[in-house]
Amino acid sequence: MVLEEYRARVAPYVARLARPFLGWSPNRLSGLAFGLAVAAALVAVLVRWTTPLLFLPVALLIFFSGVFDVLDGAVARATSRTSPRGDFLDHVLDRYSDVVIVLGIAVSGFAIPVVALLALASLLLTSYMGTQAQAVGLGRAYSGFLTRADRLVVFALATFLEFDWSLPWPWAPTEPWSRFHLAGLTFTVIDVAFVYVIVAGQATAAVRAWRAYRALPPAA
After folding, report:
1. CA separation (Å) from 53 to 49, 50, 109, 152, 177?
2. Is the Cβ–Cβ distance between 14 and 74 less than 8 Å?
3. CB 3.0 to 4.6 Å from 104: which of 9, 44, 156, 203, for a disulfide?
4. What's the structural domain count of the chain?
């Protein structure tokens, strides 16, 4: 998944979707995206003591958090309200959103804690390498195997599958808390998503770091 490659292709659709929000402050949209991420995390936590059916609103909240995270930049550009302060706030809230979503899903009881921790470290390293390239004057790095849009889609899809597989469908697993077995461990679909984030995230961080290093002039 490399959704960043389709940014130019979907730009006209994003601009159309942003039209009803042109009167909004971009920072307000950033705050709304963060609020939806926090709500997703809180609902995911409730799964531990209630039912995996709550993963449906978790998936929807993550999805709409991603939508509004895209719209804040689109509105800022359409209304000529881009600014370093707004860009900084957007990135800060994005990182907090990433953290709370992963932590909320980890507490749900459907994730191996160590796997969730490694996934969190990977996504933070991925984002760090992008901003570090910008910090040394190379511009923000969005390339790689796992952009932020990718991981939000992964999290939304994984939580939706946990909801779907908790229903009595013919294709639902017979063990409600068990999905995949490997090397003596039992993985849920969320664990598989986290493993993907670990592998793709580390690869993305390494690629971004290498490209930035190669682009910098050698030491005198």
Report:
1. 12, 9, 13, 19, 13
2. yes
3. 44
4. 1
3-state helix, strand, coil in the chain (%, to 5): 75, 5, 25
For residue 220, being part of any structural domain is answered with no
d(CA 196, CA 22): 36
In a domain, residue 27? The reply is yes
Give a yes or no: residue 142 inside a domain: yes
Structural domain contains residue 3: no
DSSP labels for 134-181? HHTTS-----SS--HHHHHHHHHHHHHHHHHHTS--TTS-SSTT--EE
28-68 confidence digits (pLDDT tens):
999 999 999 999 999 999 999 999 999 999 999 999 999 99
Residue 201 CA to its chain's centroid (Å): 11
Domain holding 29: CATH number? 1.20.120.1760
Q: What is the DSSP-derived secondary structure letter of residue 110?
A: S
Helix axes 189-215, 148-165, angle to 10 degrees: 170
Residue 137: give the domain boundaries.
Answer: 9-215
pLDDT in tens, 122-171: 999 998 988 888 888 777 777 778 888 889 999 999 999 999 888 887 77
Coil, helix or strand at residue 186: strand
- 0.85 surpassed by pTM: yes
Annotated catalytic residues are: 94
Rounded CA separation 42/71 (Å): 23
